Amino acid sequence: MRYWSILFAVAAVFSVGAFVYAPFSADWWLPNVAGDPYHVVSTFGKEIDSLYFIILGITGVAFIGTQIVLVWVQYRYVDEIGPDGKPTRPAQYFHGSQRLEVVWTIIPAAILVFLALYQMDTWASIKLRSATPRVPVLAEITGRQFQWVIKYPGPDGKLNTADDLFTVSDLHFVKNQTALIQLKSSDVLHSFFLPQMRIKQDAVPGMTIPVWFDADTAGHYELVCAELCGWGHYKMRGHVTVHETEEEFQKWQADQLAEQNRSQLSMASESQGR
Amino acid sequence: MGADLTANGSHGAAAVPAGGDDHGHSDGHDHIHPAPSNFLSKYVFSHDHKIIGIQFLFSGLIFFVLGGLLAMAVRWQLAWPWKPVPILAKALWSHPALGYQMPPEDYNKLFTMHATIMIFFVVIPLLTGAFGNFLIPLMIGARDMAFPKLNMFSYWFMWPAFIIITYSFFVEGGSAEAGWTSYPPLSVFRWSTPGSLNGQTFWLLALLFAGISSLMGSINYITTIVMLRSPGMKMFRMPMTVWAMFITALLQAFALPVLTSALIMQLLDRTAGTNFFSPVGHTVANSPPVVGGGGPLLFQHLFWFYSHPAVYIMILPGMGIVSDVIATFSRKPLFGYKPMVLAIAGIAGLGFIVWGHHMFQSGMNPQLGATFMLSTMMIALPSAIKVFNWLGTMWGGRIQYTSAMLNAMAFVAMFIIGGLSGIFMAATPVDMHIHDTYFIVGHIHYVLFGGSTFAIFAGIYYWFPKMFGRMMNERLGLIHFFLTFIFFNGTFFLMHIIGMHGHPRRIADPTAYEFLRGAGVTGMNQFMTLSAFGLGLTQLIFAYNFLSSLVVGAEAGPNPWNANSLEWSTASPPPHYNFETLPRVYHAPYEFSVPGVEADFVPQTVPLPRNITLDPVMA
Question: Which residues of chain B have pLDDT under 50?
């Protein structure tokens, strides 16, 4: 009967094994650039990942420790009947230990308070309004069923003027520059999630929420909607392009603006012709 | 096993006749009404807490089947998106144009209803409704609940809820699909998604009825425990199960009105043109813009103010059950009885100030996030104390591997995982990445399936003999446990990994995103789905064991496990009004292996030997 402890040991080994194996497979690990699985592209990503590893380490030790004790007591203190038909070993009679209770209250409490206080700075630098970087707004992004409507200020650098550039689910910004966006929602809740940059923020009707992030590697990334927003929630995907240089970004923007003006002109002429 | 308590000698002498001088609070229950004689008053509209408990047990188990089937359909879609379900496809999704595949809105309905049913119609009714009703009067030595008629109503108010939630699958637009959290505006605007047409209204009504039922139950539990304890049953002599039920009932009584108000406000928003949860000028799906209004975050605050404590409502009774089972089958006093009680009270108290950790990324003022991070970290503490005490109880014991004990130990092992993964979410910056991913889904299932459901199984295996007078088949019980434990871990553990990889929850098709298209994520999804099917099929063993044992199980006798608490001092199943004479209680129910006593247990109705003095702090 004591071999039931092996079942519990197997489950613990499976749990630990999954996390030990994870770094060896890009699909199992934290999401990063394709072909460079250990490289977090954003500044916040590096901070968040290191906090994640600290918690993983502490919880891992706690997990392995408690599972070892659990499996050990299951193996060691099994009920065995001797040849005389009586238990070979009586159970001990004790009601607890105040000293132990104090020890296993204070140690976890200290660790948990440390964890909470240690995270505060990172949280403040990512989310607090007072930490909003003093850079021009990259874009205003509005979630709507089931796309991200992105509005860039045009050449005049101001939002809500005639030269604004609109794109749908296509976010562009420049490498190593802090991108600041204003997040809105026009219908239901959505959530702006950049897995490779470890950024997440709900878009709430009636609120405009500033979100900022960066990336140190040019390339293509994904924008996910992480808050259930209706039947098409699963396909509310956005493309993120990080440009190598400011010039490249400007060129993309100019091309898009020209395209936008052309289509507006053609729409206008169509309606005139009607 | 099967020891007859009267053989213990002093048992008969220990009982105090009802109506005796020092019967404490029990005045109201001395005059024993005749037992009901016709079928309707005995088994249907029964006032008897034992029958009501069993009614909750059967209802909960039936909805468990439905909730489980919904989960398997969800898992099918995640592993093989848009592939018609073999054999059943034509019956389930009759859209030939779509090739009989599951439409995405139906996927949303499935996970919404899976969670709703499991939480409000399975776990809460089983833990508090079934075990609370059946056990509380028996364990404190009362003849029935304080308000037997109210108790009957608490069960029958579930029936409108049962009917409405089942019927909601068939209304226009189908059942609710805004998630079990039902956040507005998605849940409020009628055309925002198909399930928001009529299903959402039915969902709100069903939850209101279920809430009224819970409230009736909790008032009854609190009153019964405070007023009707038998002579000598001090508060600190109550079994942990009763303590847990007591504190759970307090949580319900204080938190539920807040959810009820949130549900009524949402109902008014949907039907009466109010705008509690929509900002001014807001419009969805070409509805007229909102005039005057509130905000979506208000609902989240109200919802989580109830639903975070609800997580503890779903785990505390399990902790109580597991404490009793572990002490009994370790043949050892519960380690740190009073610290365990304080830990439960601490979880309940802290439970009210942590709701904001569900809203770190919601747009709530991030300054609040820092406060909620600290309180959330602190709630891990009483949970840790409980785990250490369970390990301490087993340490130096004489462990008997019964089905009940194995399920209780699985509760401890799995609750450790669920508790530790909670720390990741409590840390606000880390929560940025894992919020609304499968990491959370893994966490909640380790707490609610690995925790609550293993506790429910432990409780059923442990108290089945008391409920029905027959034993369950141990061999089948062990096989059921073995497979459940394996498939459970196979189903839910890898969710932590894909969640860490950023796999969002509630998406009908993971392959819509490039970073989730890799072989690793797909393979893990398929592995989890196969495990989930295994988990579902394994429960057939339990169903067979449960039903066949009702008829052919071996006779149980009053105390098959040689346990101490009061329910084992009366017949199995207990007679009308539970006890011939109200028992007199001398000590807490955990006096196992007392030195100098021949038997390895001392029932609560039997005094301890004179030379035993208990540590007043720990026992």
Answer: 1-29
